[in-house]
C-alpha cells in the first residue's frame, strides 16, 4: 500500500489489536483519482467528521475526556489529509487512531465506502475480507549463506515470514583450510551450499503448506537462481512466477518495488484470462453475470463469488436508507422494507463494500475492452442461476 514505506507495515498490529479501553477511530476515505477530486474528498471528510461530532455530542455514554480525544484525532486526520497526504495510486485511505498514541495509515488499492467508525477496536472487517481473498506472494531472497522470505499482498510488503542463515559458518567449518587442496575446499563449499539450499527449500515448502503465500518470486544474483531452482520442490516450481534482482540484505522498498512489477504483470494476465472465461464460458453457462443490473441482483441474493469491474467505471443509483437495498432504477419506496431510497452519484464503491462484507473476491482491472463492451462490471457466481 505505501509507496515509501521503509519497514514492514503495522497491518498485523491493527488486525490483531487488543482493546485498551480507549475508543479507536477508523476512517475510510475514498480518494481514487479516477472518481473523486482532492477537493471533493476533503469535503466528504469534513462532512463525515461533522456528523460524527454531532453523534458524539448527543452520546451520554462517552466521557468528556474521551470525547475530547476523539475530536483531537479528527483534527489530526483532517491535517493529514489536507497537508500531507498525496493520492498517487491509492484508491482508499484508511487511518486508525486512538487517544493513547495509535496512528496507522494504509493505502488500500481498491475502492471502499467512505466512513468513520468509533469503536473499542479498529474496524477491519472489509480489510480482512480483502486480505483473505487477495493473492499473497512470497518473495524468497537468497544468497550462498543467507535467505529471507517476505510476504507481499495488497501492493505492499507486509511481513517477514522467515530468515535463515547457513548453520555452518564458513570460517570455522574447516579445521585447517590451508592443508586442504583447492579442489577439496571447493568440494566442501559446494556440499555446504547443497545442504543450505535443501534446508531453504524445505522451510519454504512448510510455509507454502501453511498457506503463507499463494505464489513465489525468487530474488538473488543471476548465478544463484538457476542453481537454487534445481532444489525447488515441484509444487513450488508450479507457483513460481518470476525473478527479481535483489539479495537478502537489499533495501526493503527496493525489494517491494521490484516484486510489484513481477506481480503486476502476473495479475494483469490472470485477470484478463478470468474476464475471457467470464464472457466466453461462465456467463453463457449461467455461472456468471455481466452488466450492473444483473450484478446488483446477484449481489442482493449473495450469489457472487468474484466481483469484477473496470476501475474507471462509475454508475448512478439508489440505496435504501434503512436496509441498504441497492438499485439503479428510481423507486418511491424500497421494495423490501418500504424505506426511502437515497440517490448516489456513484454506487460502484457501495457494491464493492457490500461484496467485501459478503466475503467475495474483488478483481479490478483497467482498460480491458472486452469487459468494457460487456458493461464494465460483472461477476462469477457461487452456483448457477
Ligand atoms: Zn429497504
Search tags:
385 residues; alpha+beta; Translation, Eukaryotic Peptide Chain Release Factor Subunit 1, Chain A; Nucleotidyltransferase, domain 5; 60s Ribosomal Protein L30, Chain: A; 4-stranded antiparallel β-sheet; 11 helices; 23% strand; binds zinc ion
Write the layout of secondary structure elements.
Layout: H1 11-15, E1 24-30, H2 38-58, H3 64-84, E2 92-98, E3 103-108, E4 115-119, H4 125-132, E5 137-142, E6 146-153, E7 156-165, H5 182-209, E8 215-219, H6 224-229, H7 234-239, E9 240-244, H8 252-282, E10 288-290, H9 292-300, E11 304-310, E12 317-320, E13 326-327, E14 341-344, H10 348-357, E15 361-365, H11 369-373, E16 377-381
Parallel strand pairs: 5-8, 8-9, 11-15
Antiparallel strand pairs: 1-2, 1-4, 2-3, 5-6, 6-7, 10-16, 11-16, 12-13, 12-14
Helix pairs in contact: 2-3
The structure holds zinc ion.
